[in-house]
Amino acid sequence: MIKEITKEAKNRMEHAIEDFRRKLGTVRTGRASTTLLDNIHVDAYGTQMPINQLSTIHAPEAALITVQPFDPQLSGAIEKAIRSSDLGLNPANDGKLIRIPIPALTEERRRQLAKVIGEMSEEHKTAIRNIRRDANDKLKKALKEKTVSEDEEKDGLSEVQKLTDAYVTKVSELAKHKEDEIMKV
Questions:
Q1: CATH superfamily of the domain spanning 2-25+106-183
Q2: Are strands 98-101 and 64-69 parallel, antiparallel or unpaired?
């Protein structure tokens, strides 16, 4: 019973870490990355669609991303979606290929991005703490129903706390690494 609860908590915390990694990939650093455009949705065919389902995205150079729409008629909508995103990018469209130069980050923009990373980090730490709370509630419920002893419950609570500490530390390390990457000129 205890192992099941801790295993489930560990899996959920692992998913939170993966989600955090994915979201960190969408935060712009000084160099081009195709994951930068992952959160951009384009108004196409009467619905909002992710840009990566409408085009091929490449980063041929350190300071350039290219987007080649599968349907050339969507290039205007894709360009508009990129321009209106909060990434501060200025795409150039030749009708077939959209070139997105990645400008160098200003000091002010670096600080804003570091703040965004801090907020994302806190959200994910809170998610991990919520997972801990859920696991602890299950352990306390199991004790109430007398399916585990008090010692087993204490061991379970201790194990869940160790997992929580480890995953919160992982989130902090990932955030620190990304902030260092952004602040490096």
A1: Ribosome-recycling factor (1.10.132.20)
A2: antiparallel
Closest by CA to 35, choosing from 60, 57, 5, 8, is: 57
Task: Classify residue 83 as exposed, middle or buried by CB count within 10 Å of its CB (0-12, 13-18, 19+).
Answer: middle
Range 34-101: architecture per CATH:
2-Layer Sandwich (3.30)
Single-letter amino acid code for the residue at 83: R
- List the chain residues with pLDDT less than 50: none
Give the model's pLDDT for residue 20.
93
pTM of the model: 0.72
Enclosing H/E stretch for 22:
helix 2-25
Q: How far apart are CA 92 and CA 172, in angstroms?
A: 37
Nearest to 9 by CA among 175, 119, 129: 129
The b/e string for 126-160 (b: 16+ C-beta within 10 A; e otherwise) is ebbeebbeebbebbeebbeeeebeeeebeebbebb
Nearest to 73 by CA among 41, 44, 48: 44
Q: Are 71 and 54 in contact (CB under 8 A)?
A: yes
